[in-house]
Amino acid sequence: MKSDIILAGVGGQGILSIATILGEAALSDGLHLKQAEVHGMSQRGGDVQSNLRLSSLPIASDLIPLGGADLIVSLEPMESLRYFPWLSPTGWIVTNTVPFVNIPDYPEESAIMAELKAQGNVVAFDMEALAKEVATQRASNMVLLGACSLFIEGIREEDIEKGIRNVFSRKGEAMVESNLKALRAGRERAKEYAKQIKGDGE
Amino acid sequence: MKTKKLLLGDEALALGAINSGLSGAYAYPGTPSTEIMEFIQADPTARRRGVHSHWSSNEKTAMEEALGMSYCGKRATVSMKHVGMNVAADAFVNSAMTGANGGLLVIAADDPSMHSSQNEQDSRFYAEFALTPVLEPSDQQEAYDMARYGFELSERFAIPVMVRLVTRLSHSRAVVEVDDEPSAENQLGYPANPRQWVLMPAISKERYKRLLADYDDFEKASEESPFNFYNDGPDRSLGIVASGLGWNYLKEAFPEGVPYPVVKISQYPAPRKMLARLFEECDEILIVEEGQPLLERRLRGLLDSGKRIYGKLSGEIEPTGELTPDSVKGALLGIKGDDCKIARPEIREASKVTMPRPPALCQGCGHRDVYAALNGVLEEYESPKVFGDIGCYTLGFLRPFNAIDTVVDMGASITMAKGAADAGQHPAVAIIGDSTFTHSGMTGLLDAVNENSPMTVIISDNLTTGMTGGQDSQGTGKLEQICLGIGVDPAHCRTIDSLPKNVEEMKRLFREEIEYPGLSVIISRRECIQTARRHASAKAAQK
Asked: Tens of pLDDT along A156-193?
């Protein structure tokens, strides 16, 4: 098994907490793992990404080669477009659709969605709305985690849930439960999209 | 016994140092090296043992403090980003002359691709120049293991050892096997040859001869190093030299094993015997190294008249930026074509609508108010010049502020403004953060005081070292005293809070001091919004 994942977003949005939970889960499932992060200047509201590589075999490179990623996971729609050249021909994109506009020349949303849809295997929805519906808006990165976990074989759902418990337990049981709800809702919603797309293809 | 841990390259090296009996860590924050010190500050063993882990004022003071600890026989690290080596250079180069007593690791974290830096300088050149060994880990496990190995090497040869990291290893996590039981610290003990630590010409002349002789022994150690090896392959039409992370990208290109002979180098001076064998057995040579082409230049020689060599100088590998799995595959495909049996991946077209998203000052950041006020005043002048410095406020160069004209190195704002004022420039404004001021601004300020240079220094004090994530700033609470102590005229040493409601007041103050035909310092203060939030939530958690 191998899963090469590009996590994308805007500095401060919280992609690293997704990476941390996936990393802990992969570790308890006995997988090899490498995760390259971005620290420093670009964390101040710039574009940020993390390369997360999981495999049952040892991993050589910290970086994912072009055309090699199985999954792009993004907290922001324009940021999900930035990494197309890394995505394999059979790869999936899982992204939130709520724009984070902090630049004056941010593209038209319709242009973003058109490019995104043209890629085929795409799960894109308003994750903030779903998070708000089942928990709180701040849990939208857990919705994304749940949605993308559907496309990562080799990591068990319960290990991701255990990871969430570890990260949020010091903030109280209510916080843990709220994040777990968001996670499960994200996963269920992604299942519906994936079924549609796979159904279309057959 | 060993335990598995998920660690950044920086953290693996830090934990390796703690577990091999570290007594003192010294550092100034700088991406990508910061997490080394942060890990030591938080580590339970280091805390229990009272391992020194307070931030230093700059890389030179850190280097000298570490050397002092080594003099007393204890194991020490000093860590910094690559450009910090420039600041520490005087101490570093001369530490090769004194030698080390307790194991001393000089950790330089290079930033090829300039993710968060102003250049791509390669620290290996410093070590070659100073005549010290270098360890260059290729993965997180090597980073961990090299701490103990490095201390032992340092003590065996009584020489500081450089550990060269690069961003991609410093900031990448992997599973590392670590020792369960940390080794004991060294006892206090003095150098066998105390004279060697007094670098007066008569002693230095003697010592330099000895150091040159020792350098041959460092090379022998490289030949026997567990981190350097000859990885034989059946196809001798090409031989490859791969250093540090280059080795990983090579393995990535050939998951079934590299078909060409490889010399993998992670310890310098370069193991010449291994390289000689590669040159003898292979028709052509490819050199894969992270950073500037140090090995490539040495192997080509001045005349480049020997065997055909491919690398950064001949263009098969992009000479700027960090290595990637793709640049290494590309070089192999370029040289060997499909004979190398590397699959050419199908690559999707890049997005056409995506725009760059540069970093920006946070909403609620005091630097924003400083720039708003400063721009408001300077538009009244025909040709104002603002000399900037290194930190979050460097982002003032970007829109919407477009407020600074130069950024060069730590502290250069004050001294360049002085040079400009000497040339007749008015207004000549320096803008510098609190941590950068105590790092390298204070000495320049003394020059300006001594000549009462007609210039205005704004210290934008956010009570922290912001860009690297909010480490303690050495001047917090002392800036006024420092400026007055250096001799700034109390009438022209002003303080104000950087707040949106104060912008008019700030403008008035800036205007007054720019109009004053001598040196002024304005300390404009507001806590960093990031650390303020952290302090607020820590306080809330306590309740």
From this structure: 999 999 999 988 888 899 999 999 999 999 999 999 99
Name the closest residue on chain A to residue B30, using Cα atoms.
Answer: A40
Nearest to B503 by CA among B385, B386, B412, B369: B369
Helix (H) or strand (E) holding B146: helix B140-157
Q: What are the structural domains of chain B? A: 2-224 (3.40.50.970), 229-340 (3.40.50.920), 366-532 (3.40.50.970)
E strand or H helix that includes residue A92: strand A87-96
* Partner-chain contact A103 B32, CB within 8 Å: no
Residues β-bridged to residue B310: B286
Find the residue in B nearest to A59 (Cα).
B252
Distance between CA atoms of B210 and A94, rounded to whole angstroms? Answer: 62
Q: What residue type is assigned to position B308 of the chain?
A: R
For B38-69, the pLDDT digits (tens) are: 999 999 999 999 999 999 999 999 999 999 99
Please, are residues B383 and B427 in contact by the beta-carbon 8 Å criterion? no
B476 — phi, psi (to 5°)?
Answer: -55, 125
Contact partners, residue A176, CB within 8 Å, separation at least 6: A164, A165, A168, A169
Residue A200, pLDDT above cutoff 80? no
Which residues numbered 217-246 in B keep a CB inside 8 Å of some CB on A? 245
Q: What is the pLDDT of residue B126?
A: 98
CB contact under 8 A, A41 and B6: no
Helix ranges (DSSP H) in chain A: 15-28, 77-81, 109-117, 127-134, 140-149, 157-168, 173-201
Which residues in chain A have Cβ-Cβ distances shorter than 8 Å to B175? 27, 32-33
**Integer Cα distance of A31 and A153 in angstroms:** 11
Report ipTM for this prediction: 0.94
Decide if domain A2-201 falls under CATH 3.90.550.10.
Answer: no
